[in-house]
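Protocol step 4 of 6: structure prediction from sequence.
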Amino acid sequence: MATVVAQSHFIFGLRTGVRNNLCFVDEQTVVFPGGNSCVCFNTVQRCQRFIPGSENSQGMHALTISANRRYLAVAECGGNATVTVFDLQHEQGRKRKVLTAGDMLVQEFVCVAFSPDSKYLIGQTGGPDGTLVFWLWEKQKVLATVKTGNSVTQVSFSPHDNTRLCVSGSGVFKLLRYSEGALKQSRSAKVEAVNFLCHAWVTEERVIAGTDAGRLLVFESGNLRREIDVATEAAQCDIRPVEMKKITDAGVGEGPRITAILPNSKGFACSLGPGTVCLFEKIEEDGYRRSREIRIPADPCSNELTSAECQEIHTMCISPAEETLAVSTDRGQLYSFSLSSVKLNKEEHFEFLSQSFHSQSITGLSVCIRKPLVATSSLDHSVRIWNYETKLLELYKEFQEEAHSVALHPTGLFILVGFSDKLRLMNLLIDDIRTIKEFTVRCCRECAFSHGGHMFAADNGNVIHLYSVTSFENILNLKGHNGKVRGIEWSLDDTRLVSCGMDGAVYEWNTQTGKRESESVLKSCSYTDVAFSSDCRTMLAVGTDLTLKEIQDCQVLREVPADDVAHTAVAVSHSGRVVFTGTSSGTVRAIKYPLPIQKEWITYQAHCGPVTKMVTTFDDQFLLTVSEDGCLLMWKVIDKEGRGLKSNRQIIHTEEILITKSDLEEKSQNMLELKMRLNELQMENEYQLRLKDMNYKEKMKELSDKFTQQIESLNTMLQAMKAEMDKQAGEHQESCAEATVKHSMELKDLEVSYSQKLIVEYERNQDLQHESQRMQEDYEKQLRAAEESKIQSLEQLTQLSEAKLQEKTQLLGQCQEDAQQQVREFKEMMRQVEEDEESKIHDIQIHYEQKLHTEKETITNLKGETGVMTQKFHSLQRQVDDRCTDIKQLKQERQRLLGLVRSLKSDIEDLKRQMSGHEKTNQDKDQTISSSKKKNQELEKLKFVLDFQFSELKKQTETQQDQINEKKEHIHQLEEQLLLTDKSNTQLTLSVSELGLRLRTRNQEMHKEMLKVKDLETHLQRLKSDLHECVSFIQDPRKLKESVQTIYARYVPLTDEVKRSSADKDVQRTVGRDHQEKTVNGLRTRLARSAEEHERAYVKIMREKGTLITEINELRKELHMARTQLRDQTAQLAALNRSDRFL
């Protein structure tokens, strides 16, 4: 085993998702889950004690602490969920008991709770069948279980009764009582539509529950009594009555979610919405007053104004003396508030219990040489600087983007952070992180400064860039990886750099030339981290192949296989004695170096998620690990004797810090102003003190005079009271003497009266004893007589029963013999019937051979007819296609015809399938006929008996043949009708073509008329232009007359001829148009009639086809009946043959 071990030292982070994840052990110590352990944190001494989880644990789900603050119960999930009880008074948190749900297989426990005397424990299981388990935990005994459903989120004991429990959740609120070894439900209200998030016992009978709609409901003895209105901010909260029948959130506005309720001696505290806790004090028997409101303050280092204030409070706890209130949030933060502080301001705020933690997965980790600092980056957009010696958060800042990688400069004064859009080099100032230079390196997942601090390396996908820190120039680009780079580390002399990637390659680069010095490629493995050994001669790499490899000169020297858990990170101590690896399950392993051949390591429970990064400090005193659970865990590296490792390096930590000149000037100016303000305040305070002294002296004089007067008056009153007391003492003695004499007389009288009463009672007691003895003797005599009568009746009954048994046994024997005889007779009858049936079947098969032959002939005829029908169908389809190309107006009718054709096709296919089925049946029957011919010789004797039956069957087949002939004739008639419809269709096509020709001629005539109209329009335009010219001669009558005459001579005779010709043509057009319209209407009526006749013919065909199918089915049924009759007759024949044989 390794001689070097790691010891958990300190953790920065809170594990979320654990029910009741914060508890007070005492006034200074709290317990919370961190990683895969429970942490006991002393807030004054700032030290931590770890209680590790189980080895096979898959995570914690709930915590609870006992009422005496001694025991801690931890619910863990795994193959079978367990609840482990630890003793907190033991230094190492000794494990007391491990509880299970008995015979049930449970995946998880959602919540657990101790009884007020810490003897009992309850746990609610998860899954669809949620069960409440009740333990006597010290004996590991399950006392009772009850199913409560899968929506329960909290369980609790009554603080005054071990046997009373409360269960709440979504649509669940029940009060249970443990009695007679079972958990029984008491009376409760109907709450199916209410989602209860929390509850708390306030008194012995009263429970206050909070809902997701912001309602505080008060239950007493399981019944809803009232609702506390949390919306009002007045001093007195409204208490509203609520209906008792059924509670729902319908009609209630969405208020702040109440996620936690904590009772205390004065009242209770509840989380009222994001980042707010309200304290309620009890003022009456049923009333509560809101006394204080405490909020989570805004984060000054956050870019989002409301991110810290919007945290939802999950758990609240109060110290035993009720001086400190602590809360945990959904973002993994711990806050505290001192309840003993005086309320000075209207707004009161929480403070961090320790410091601010990461709330999401930590992606980067880095340490420096000259300072005890650790830098981490996270997906919560923050970069934080921790001091691993003082265990404090030195500096942090939130950005707009997610931080994927981080690297500290060896001096601790600069930091390199990789964001999704760029890589930034920043200064670490006294109270801020400021950017110096931005580099265009996107999604930088890995970055590292050289040990000298003069260069840094950063990856960009599968390329590694080397930059100068002084000039910010890109010195080299290292190309060679085919996948993303997952690990980068510099050698001690900064001349070499090793990298690993998801492509399964480990490369060693020369940082001066940019060339590869060695390489190791294993494509089946995706490497996650790589590191140099302490002497930088070999490289250690881990990946997805579950091994730790030591590589030198392009060869794998050693491989250390892991179990079933992959290594995700690796770190080597600078002393070279140990190698640390982190796994995907969150554990840390210490392996001695040189690497062993066998599986030898020490495993430590560390995180509850995969370890993302790990590094050792340069003095080998601490190991630092981070994980996807958002926790930073510090390990102290020691040897087995508990001493720290000796380092060859002498590292001196410096204390210098960076600050800008403007900040320094501003701070000095602020200091001067504060000093001046301080002097002014001192002067004012001195003056105020003098005034107060004078006022106090005057008040002292007044009070002293007043008290002296009161003392004198009290002295006089005391003397008067003494005299009165002496007088009352004498009177008291006299009254006491008289009372003693009177009392003695009364005692004597009572003694005499009671002695007489005792004598009377003694005599009465003697008489009663004699009477009881007499009654006892009578009772014994009656008992003896009853026993004798009972014995006689028993003997009689036994004799009767024995006689009946004998009779019944005889009857049973006879019945069994009769039954055996009947069974034999039945078997013989069955054998004879079977033989007769076989002979009849053979005869009927011979008869039906002829019938099958006739059916084959009919099938061949049907095939020919179907061929004719298909040919006709093709011709019809061609005619329809031709008609569609010519006439666009008959598209709808064509679609109908196509539908009919498709239906005919489907019918033809059905007929083909039937024919194929008939052929298969014929083949089967041929085989049976061949087998039956062999039996013909044996069945010739029975031929004469079956002739009569054959004649009857022939008559039936003749009637069926007549029906078939009738159907054939009907089919021929249908074919003739189809031919007639084809002829009518051809006539319709001819008429349609004639109409098309007429339409074309009409269109030509219309075109000619349009040309004539255009000519007339041109004449009109010319006439208008001539008239326009004529108007210009309106002042010259002669010219005007000449121009008018010329116009008249030019246009008048032409217009007359046009009118005559147009009138004649109009007459011709009207006559032709009327004739064409008449012919078109006639053709349309013919078309409609032919279409109707066509449709009627097709409808008739389809109906007749349906009737044919039904008749064929009936014939099949008759054939089946005939076959069954034949079988029956063969069976009868066989029986007759057997009877003849017996005769």
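Step 5 (inspection) to follow. The radius of gyration is 55 Å.
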